[in-house]
Design a protein that fits this description.
This protein is of the alpha/beta class. The protein contains four helices and five strands; from the N terminus they run E-H-E-H-E-H-E-H-E.
């Protein structure tokens, strides 16, 4: 189990899996959107383990000035997680191939 788990799968199954993969006292964040009006989650298991669940998109705007300062000073390199840079023309094919983080350019 993991202390921090992020579910971006946008399905009932991935949300339940993410909740169950979170260790006791850990944080599970769901950033996808599930379009079904009712979505069961393992509440008893989460309650018993003290898991925190956050649902919604990241509110990164408040941290943007600090991030830009890190970039400006060279203290943060976002390229470390980028495995491919492709043009928008090649985006469809690139998304179908295995990847970690794609960056698209005009």
């Amino acid at each position: 189990r993991f202390g921090v788990v992020v579910d971006a799968g946008a399905s009932r199954e991935t949300l339940a899996c993410a909740c169950r993969a979170t260790r006791a006292g850990g944080d599970c964040t769901h950033v996808g959107i599930i379009y079904e009006p009712e979505t069961p989650i393992p509440l008893f298991e989460m309650y018993s383990s003290g898991i925190n669940l956050h649902v919604g998109r990241a509110m990164a705007r408040a941290d943007l000035p600090d991030l830009l300062a890190l970039l400006d000073r060279g203290d943060f390199n976002p390229g470390v997680v980028t495995d491919r840079v492709v043009s928008f023309d090649d985006a469809a094919d690139a998304l179908l191939a295995p990847h970690n983080k794609l960056v698209f350019t005009p």
